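[stage:ingest] chain + small molecule (iron/sulfur cluster)
[stage:ingest] validated
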Amino acid sequence: MSVKVGLPRGMFYFDYFSLWKSFFNNLGVEVLISPKTNKEILDRGVNACVDESCLPVKVFHGHVDYLKDKVDYIFIPKIISIHKREYNCPKHLGLPDMVKNSIKGLPEIIDTEVNLRKSNKFLKKSIIETGRYFEKSDRKILNAFYDALKQYNNYLKMMTTGFISLDVLGKNADMKVIKNIIRKDNNRRILILGHSYNIYDQYINMELVKKLKDFKFDLITAEMIDEKKAREYAKKLPKRMFWTHGQRIIGAAYYLIEEKSISGIIYVSAFGCGLDSVFIDLIERKAKKAKIPFTLLTIDEQTGEAGVNTRLEAFTDMLDWRLKDESNFSTLW
Ligand code: SF4
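[stage:predict] done
[stage:export] tokens:
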């Protein structure tokens, strides 16, 4: 029987699932991904995690709890930094320790540290440390990783052409959500912003993508913007943005606002997220100057679907009214 590694479907899973899964598979390891978030997983997470945590961290605990009796290892890297001179939210680096303290009866946790703040060369150490659980040869471990990286880069390229992976959204979702990212002749285009785990986890954001598609809006997410382009626009901030997620989210928003390629912005944020409070303020000001409507959806475990539906309907109605008579409608929402 092959060794089985569990990947909890939460937090950085939404950025790196294709890389991690292929890497483990290339090492001959079976991967079990927890199911899409559902009520049971949310309840498990809320019960296991400390109250003060944000919703995505609670949900992540629920996914770990689901996997704990089904696998030999669970992969929860301690991701301190993924870019030179930049950081992630402290909750990302504290994640393995939080989980170990909160959930009893866990299998071995692979909690490799990833810290590229000083240099990318530290990545090699993290890769070998992870692969060493299953393979003695450094060369084989690195080959397994670089092969997985090729597939991951193809996946990233695919996203920049307007795709959202079925692995992320589930079988009923459209894969191709938009044809041309930059296009000024169509005003029914919404930029959905926020951390990947808030945008792509369709349970916690109450099927936002599906609902907006049902309203026949084209959707863009920050991941569809080439990273170099997003970073180029993030440089327009008065001070250097040292949060990696901020570079991506703010840079993508600035780019699309300046290109006048969107008709509205919806920001999905977890209640109490400190990073988001900074990103939201910067993006909202820029959108206001460009007269692009902006709305914020704050989510926590108490958020009701009816309230979200009402806000989405009102926001999309307002975008349509603006198309008919732009000068009469406020961008504040
Ligand atoms: S960035 Fe915000 S939503 Fe993400 S883990 Fe940190 S506090 Fe939670």
